[in-house]
Amino acid sequence: MTARTVAQIQTEIDAVVAQGRKINRLQNEGAEGNDHTDDDKIASLYAERQDVVYATDWTREATIERRDAWNASVRAAGPNPRLFKLEREAGFTAITLRKAINHHAI
Questions:
Q1: Is the separation of the CB atoms in 47 and 99 below 8 Å?
Q2: What span, in angstroms and rounded, lies between the C-alpha atoms of 92 and 50?
């Protein structure tokens, strides 16, 4: 079995969510708010998608390169950097970068 792509996993997540919504509309058990979405399945798919993202988009080398570029941008911005502007220019958030650094134990 070949590895799945982020798009394939997202398609499956969307299908599971849509199926849950369909069941919820059909079985409105007295308006008690029972949710028939398979949360465990969705959680496992999100975890799989995250693993694929780190394996493809956030490789160890890419993370190191992005961290170095990020640190240079922050240093160049001075003592009070405009975080949102830096994130927009970099194409990723500081939180995403921190998660990738922790994932690779850099």
A1: no
A2: 15
> Percent helix, strand, coil in the chain (nearest 5)?
75, 0, 25
Name the residue among 77, 98, 104, 100 with its Cα closest to residue 89.
77
Rg (CA), the chain: 19
Distance CA 98, CA 67 (A): 9
Q: Measure the CA angle with vertex 101, ends 5 and 74; round to 5°.
A: 115
The answer on pLDDT for 53 being more than 90 is no
Question: Domain residue spans in the chain?
Answer: 6-56, 60-104
The pTM of this model reads: 0.57
Closest CA to 45 of 18, 14, 23: 14
From the centroid of its chain, how far is CA 100? 11
